[in-house]
Amino acid sequence: MGMLDHWQPVARTEDLGRKPLAAVVAGHQVAVFRTASGKLGAVADACPHRRLKLSAGEVVGEKLQCRYHGWTFDACGEGESPGAPKMHTCTTSYDVREEHGLVWMKTRQSSPQFPTLDLGGFVHVGSLVHDAPAPLELTMDNFNEIEHSGTVHKNFGYDLDKMHEVKVGFESTDDSLTVSNVGPTKRLPFLDRLYIGIKPGDLFHDKWTTWFSPLHSRFDHWWTSADGSQERKVRWRVYLFYVPVTETSTRVYSMLYAKSRWWPQPNGGLRLVRRYIRNQTAAEIDADIDMLQYLADYEPGLAGLKLSRFDKSLGLTRERIQRIYRGEGGTRTPLRIAG
Ligand code: FES
Ligand SMILES: [Fe+2]
Predict the structure, then answer these.
(1) pTM to 2 decimals?
(2) CATH, domain range 3-107
(3) Where in the chain is the domain with CATH 3.90.380.10?
(4) Is 69 in the pocket of ligand 1 (CB under 6 A)?
(5) Fewer beta carbons within 10 Å, N or C terminal of the chain?
(6) How far apart are CA 145 and CA 50, in angstroms?
């Protein structure tokens, strides 16, 4: 398996209208489009004629038309030239599908499993896209570690001065990693305390699992009484999908879900606070991304780092990215932009 062989998101459904989109996945430029009948297509974003970006063109009927000399391409990549009708061409095309409010893409020849989302009882409250100015590994390191919640986050996490009390549990399988953290919650903003029902002395529970085909994590956040016997009113579930763009940038797609025990069920008032939750989550991910711009360098290797007990998963994550996602045993594959 190579990097393009996994099902990966390339856009939110709402961002793909009648205008084609330019996406970059693992250094490969792709034009994604929706035909007049609603069918999705994805082709290499370089016209085989003279290499204009096909994403700069427009959809005409069931085809994507190049803006330069008007050659047209269908979703299978079959192209024809209006000026030389006997000249047919074929460009690289990809499998595309739309699920969970996102548009996904993979190579034609691969047959990976499509990622399943476990959403029993959860309500969708929003989907976001963020661009991180850091390589894939360093971006994933940020999201797969809770120690920075003491300083970087406001709406969840642990107090810096109680970080030593946080218990970290760790489980791994051949193709996943799960980390469970529990400790005294930090003090949240008033509205969050009120809505979630957090009381002084409560515990914050953070559990996440990361998988590698495609690269994604599921985070669960919930609060309980200090003895763990009573769960508070609201719990969050967030899925993040990580898509490497270039050597130094990574796109993060987030899907936010919540479960509330407030009246009225089954929504528990989530419709009312949906915008607030979305904005708060966007601000938290912005805070993560902001931190990544201050890294002294973007070398993804771990040699020489003084890793803490919260960083135990970093090495295992790298091994799985290399073996499962990049599909290679040896060195990191460079992500140069290629048409
Ligand atoms: S470059 Fe696309 S039609 Fe000429
Ligand atoms: Fe974070």
Answers:
(1) 0.95
(2) 2.102.10.10
(3) 123-325
(4) yes
(5) C
(6) 46
